Amino acid sequence: MQGRRVAVTGLGIVAPCGVGVEAFWAGLCSPAPVGPRVLEDWDASPYFENAKEVRRSDRFTQLAVAAAEEALAQAGELGADPARLGTFIGTGVGGIETLETQIETRLTKGERRVSPFLVPMMMTNAAAATLSMRHGWQGPCENTVTACAAGTHAIGNAARLISNGLCDAVLAGGSEAPFTPTAVAGFSNMTALSSSGVSRPFDPRRDGFVMAEGAAVLVLEELSHAEARGATILGEILGSASTADAHHITAPAPGGTGAITCMRLAIEDAGITAEEVVHINAHGTSTDKNDAAEAAAIAKIFGTPGPVITSTKGVTGHALGGAGALEAAAVLLSMSHRLIPPTAGHETLDPEMPDIDLVVGEPRRWVPGPSLSNSFGFGGHNGTLVIGPG
Question: What is the DSSP string of 47-92?
Fold first, then answer.
């Protein structure tokens, strides 16, 4: 990434396998759960001033607010001009819970009963706007909606705001709360969801993804600014890339051609070579075509067995537009703990795939180095981050 260097100085996570950074890490190193990954007994009230604020925020916004609170607490006082502080939060479906609820209200109770807060709650920029207003960050406030690549794209876009000199810090990440009856039915009827309720990335028994909700928010900061105030550097965003398959609305391009280009461009953007990449957090959704295409793409670039690979979706499930942010967080935590969590749910590598070096069973010790985090979404959206240790 040409220009100013981009550090990560704060990290916040809300996920079914753990609320908070340390709980999330413990979850990643635990056995795979079964069934949809839902935040049981979620209570947003600690993160808002009153019950009215909670009621006027869709669940996906609530999750982003909670994750941002933890990230900002870790980052500490930034001491920057508010006009140079930005917000960039990705999502796939935004306030879909609010939309579905209010459609039902209209159908059963009439138009006059539809909430006047429907639009500001359902709009996909609601999480980014809420964070900007809560913290007084007056720089660019944007969001990315690129299906399952949204969280990754948001972090990459945010990093460029800093690298290009437009911001000194940006709250960046992704959030998703997709569990509505209609959304679940839609994914199920297109046979995208696992019928077994188990996520098995790169395994021949994989039968679809396990849907999840969750959010992760990173505080990205210009490196010298962070160093000058004595901040703890959790990692560095070295580069990123975005490409399109231009092939099919849901299926990846054969052989992962779009993913190949995306990873190569991200590596080039980072100013490194493929040989320097030591770890990949794969998109690894546990769907037949996605896993096959990604494995083929990785082998094409890196050969076999290539870098150490894991798919944390075996534990987290697939949080759609929040997935990329959760996985970037997983890479950063892998670096700080010097352990790569295993691909939970996986037992045997699909013999139709190249011989990739997948972490299974137990976490694997490693010496942190340049790592990729991949996200590939419906619509042919591809996103790759290159993350380096702090």
Answer: GSSSHHHHHTS-HHHHHHHHHHHHHHHHH------GGGEEEEEE-S
